[in-house]
Design a protein that fits this description.
The complex is a heterodimer of chains A (234) and B (245). Chain A has a 6-stranded mixed beta sheet with strand order 5-6-7-3-8-9, sandwiched between helices. In chain A, strands 2-1-4 form a 3-stranded antiparallel beta sheet. With 234 residues, chain A is of the alpha/beta class. In chain A, helix 2 crosses helix 3 and helix 3 crosses helix 4. Helices cover 35% and strands 26% of the residues of chain A. With 245 residues, chain B is mainly alpha-helical. Chain B has 10 helices and no strands. The chains are: A alpha/beta (234), B mainly alpha (245). At the A-B interface, helix 2 of A face helix 1 and helix 5 of B.
Chain lengths: 234, 245
């Protein structure tokens, strides 16, 4: 049971203040959705959490540790980020085998996640032949490869069709129900309403709200008006 | 470290580019040496060294391969996965430099074997015997292999520093052309003979001045290794603190 703590996180890129004094937590067994407009600092926050971006001040901890201090991080944290790419000429199965070698995970696990993500028929094909939905599934397969307790996903539903979105929601719900800590960054209100246990609303790099979904309004229109009101306060 | 090396190895062998480049080296050697065999005066010992020195030509593929191994990860976006697997970036760079040194060794060996085999066949086909027994023969081949290792490491360090495949390859080729020309004029042809695309009668490329001479390749190869180490060090110092966005 690993939780996530963001404590007084500040990140500036040159003169741009991406995140300012942000603090919130994400608990195990729940789906916590980071909600905010484009450019609100959600992605930056996740990147600091995963160690690919260095914080200007404050910290982002996973089970009390920074990502770079975790031993074998892929077995503790799985990530699906927008910037995660694939070599187009590599076969899907080989992409996973590269990551399996890196995480000291047996190749049999690769076949397991391929099956779980419904990619068995496509696994031998090169990634350049994959549709967006298939790439998302491959990315999710990579994220769960190490059987991590924590999952961090940045706008995972982007570009997915309704079938894909529903599938993704089911996957994330079952992972959370199994006790994992699931953090999802999103700008889609509809997804949030159906997926989130807890909601963290960010706008212009600052916290606007943090708490259970029920507190803010779990029907579509209630959520939307509450959200727009919260991000309007500058 | 073992898991790092294993994943780097898998990255290399699971893409077609690796095998294409592996063949390209020996093909370049064959192309270069055939000119010597067809047109050169095979009685002149310079012809023998000129033929064998084409082993260094394959260093071009080693260089490109090194660049692709580091800058290529930025191009395809796979660098994020790499740093998520191994957040300690200095270790990633160490693993890559090690692996690409080995890749350079493989390319160098493939090209050296090709150069020697083709020289033996070509010389005897024209009725001469190739001076296999001479120490310089093995010095030249060894130096050519070392040049391949140095260029692979140099490419990997350059790619990590610049993070852009096109810029790195362009800069590297321009550097070779410029440095090679300058070095040839300052140091003389004995070292310049050991640089890829060095003046060679068969390739009809840039002619560098200076008398011929059969000398060990160690001087030129050592210099290249120094360059490789410089790039690698710069890559360590500069890339560690960078944000990966």
């Amino acid at each position: 049971m690993t939780d996530i703590q963001i404590r007084h996180l500040t990140k500036t890129f040159g003169s741009v203040k991406a995140v300012t004094d942000l603090s919130f937590g994400a608990e195990a067994g729940k789906v916590t959705v980071l909600l905010g407009p484009n450019g609100s600092g959600k992605t930056t926050t996740l990147r600091v959490l995963l160690g690919t971006v260095r914080a200007t001040a404050g910290d982002a901890l996973i089970g009390g540790q920074r990502y770079e201090d975790l031993s074998c991080p892929r077995r503790r944290v799985g990530a699906l980020l927008d910037s995660t790419g694939f070599h187009p000429g590599r076969r899907a199965r080989d992409h996973l085998r590269v990551l399996a070698a890196a995480a000291d995970v047996p190749d049999s696990r690769v076949d397991e996640v391929i099956g779980q993500m419904g990619l068995a028929d496509a696994a031998a094909r090169r990634v350049r032949t994959f549709s967006l939905g298939m790439r998302q599934r491959l990315g999710l397969a990579a994220a769960i490869l190490g059987e991590p307790e924590v999952l961090v996903l940045d706008e995972p539903a982007n570009g997915l069709d309704p079938v894909g979105i529903a599938w993704l929601r089911d996957q994330l719900r079952s992972l959370a129900t199994a006790g994992r800590t699931v953090v999802v960054a999103s700008h889609g209100l509809a997804e949030v309403a159906q997926l989130a246990d807890d909601v963290v609303i960010i706008s212009a790099g600052q916290l606007r709200f943090s708490g259970p979904l029920a507190e803010i309004g779990d029907t579509g229109s209630a959520l939307e008006s509450a959200f727009l009101k919260l991000i309007a306060t500058a | 470290m073992p898991s790092m090396l294993r994943s780097e190895y898998r990255k290399i062998v699971t893409i077609r580019t690796s095998w294409v480049l592996l063949i390209t080296g020996p093909l370049l050697v064959v192309a270069g040496i055939s000119g010597v065999i067809l047109n050169g005066d095979l009685r002149d010992p310079v012809a023998a060294t000129s033929a064998l020195s084409h082993t260094g030509i394959a260093a071009l593929t080693s260089l490109i391969f090194g660049i692709l191994g580091t800058a290529g990860e930025y191009r395809h976006g796979t660098i994020t996965d790499t740093y998520l697997s191994f957040p300690r970036r200095e270790r990633v760079l160490t693993a890559k430099l090690t692996v690409y040194a080995l890749v350079g060794l493989v390319y160098g060996l493939a090209s050296a074997v090709t150069a020697l085999a083709m020289s033996l066949i070509g010389w005897s086909a024209r009725g001469y015997s190739f001076p296999v027994g001479k120490a310089s023969t093995w010095g030249i081949l060894g130096g050519g292999i070392l040049v391949n290792v140095a260029f692979a490491v140099l490419g990997a360090g350059l790619g990590a520093l610049v993070r852009n495949v096109v810029v790195a390859i362009t800069a590297a080729l321009a550097w070779i052309a410029v440095v090679e020309t300058i070095m040839g004029q300052l140091i003389g042809s004995s070292l310049s003979r050991w640089l890829p695309f060095a003046a060679s009668e068969s390739l009809d490329e840039v002619r560098l001045s200076g008398p011929g001479g059969v000398l060990p390749a160690w001087g030129g190869a050592t210099l290249l290794i120094v360059y490789a180490a410089l790039f690698a060090t710069a890559a360590y110092l500069v890339t560690l603190g960078r944000d990966v966005t």
